[in-house]
Amino acid sequence: MNSGWIIFAVLFWIAAWGINALLVRIRVSNSQSAMAINLAVPVLFGITLLVLWEGLVRGFNVPQVLLPAPSVIWERILLSIPNPLWPDFQQTFLKSVLTGYAMGCSAAFVVAIAIDRSPFLKRGLLPVGNFVSALPLVGIAPIMVMWFGFDWQSKAAVVVVMTFFPMLVNTVAGLNATGQMEKDLMRTYAAGYWQTLVKLRLPMAWPFIFNALKINSTLALIGAIVAEFFGTPVVGMGFRISAAIGRLQVDMVWAEIALAALAGSLFYGLIALIERAVTFWHPSVRGGR
Amino acid sequence: MERLTQNTWFAVLVVVSAIILIWYGFSIQLNMPWQRGVYARAGEDGVPLLQLLSDLWSQQRPVLPAPHQVAVEFWNSVFLANPSTPRSLIFHAWITLSATGLGFLFGTLLGIFLAVLIVHNRAVDRSLMPWVIASQTIPILAIAPMVVVVLNSVGLTGLIPKALISTYLSFFPVVVGMVKGFRSPDALQLDLMRTYSASGAQMFWKLRWPSALPFLFTSMKVGVAASLVGAIVGELPTGAAGGLGSRLLAGSYYGQTTQIWAALFMAAALSAALIFAISAVQKLTQKAMGAPA
After folding, report:
1. Total domain count for chain A?
2. CA of B271 to nearest chain A CA: how many angstroms apart?
3. Which residues of chain A have a CB within 8 Å of the CB of B259?
4. What CATH class has B89-288?
5. ipTM for the assembly
6. What is the pLDDT of residues A68-85, one digit of tens each?
């Protein structure tokens, strides 16, 4: 027990809480400083969490096996970036996740546009697709490993299956979002099917499609990492996590978690940025300014 | 005919039968190489088609089992096996279901609690909400086995570690849905409550809570599916302890594909049953609150 650390952490927490409570009350007319405050409040909260974590771990002498302090994890990250973090990232994220994500999402997009022309198929496939997207699809990982071997191809296959159905359901829903009035207007312009699709219905569907893309960005990472538990070459984030657990190198595990969290957040953020650029006209984007 | 094609059930039926047909096709194609090898070694040539099909569909470890093989395995392990032994899927499903239920309960309560805090305190709203969203970009499912192992090593075994993972996965939809729900009463309704000089607690219980209920049920449906996935993945490292996840892992170790598929269908059935149960509770609640049937 080291009470100094605990007292420091708790004091820091109270101080940060007070500052945040003050920051929230400030009213500013300048939009730039309003944005700075909006950014500062959650950042301060995050730092507080880290300080509390560090303080409590050090203060209560929590064994490293249970929960390493953030500073220990940070050192481990710095030490192991060249090896194994970067090769793992290449194997899991650049090969499995990106390939599977691109294939799954584009296949679902094409299928959605194909079945959109047939109301019968749409009625039949939508309930099935909705049902399948609620299923624990990560369970197919062992089967995919059997079919496609140990390397990244089997992980990409899991990612394809996991990303396919959310994308399908959302794209079909998005294509249905166009109102009858707008469709009639396109008809008065003598627009053909493809013109209506590209100029009216796809733009209306973008918010739904990006919703699916965002959901899928985290699903894809989860799928790839979990699939690696069922057999993999000796590289990859999932492999490293399960191997490090076996040796009780908990700091290594947390380093991989931090890497996965960072990759997941950046991936999500990138898609959110593209969404803002593509759907600049949408109320949810305009209202944010 | 016109009315038949308009019927949703008919359309779903057609799609499902098409999927089963495609499945049969693939099961023939994928299992063929192995069967060819068997015939070549036995020196048999020109096997009649019926014989070939029955051989294909009675392999011990098919690459892709045919639907009826999975159905038979499912039937055997659900209805014929003794439910108190690990041979029974009911045994495994019950272990998974209890972890799911506990985690889902914790997750829903935590989600509602956080949503109440967020709605009533601006500082919490601004500082917590971005982190709640960021927490979901962390692939927690991927580290679920680690959480279980580490918690096991400090003496927390059995249901709790799996339930914690389910909690983490299911609190998020509830927080987001309930924040939306608690904020759904408009200014007019809030003002009306104020003219009645309602206290904060009255405002919450008589206006905010009832109007948030539809949101609660919608997000609970998302959350329960997520907690089932969490419980299954959490079982992957526990091995012999049982549960659908350990059944999947065992099947993958011993190449028992039929067993894996049967476990997957059990998981699907559980997920569907849980969502159905929540819909039923939702309907009952709506009726009790006087919604039009």
Report:
1. 2
2. 7
3. none
4. mainly alpha
5. 0.72
6. 888 888 888 888 888 788
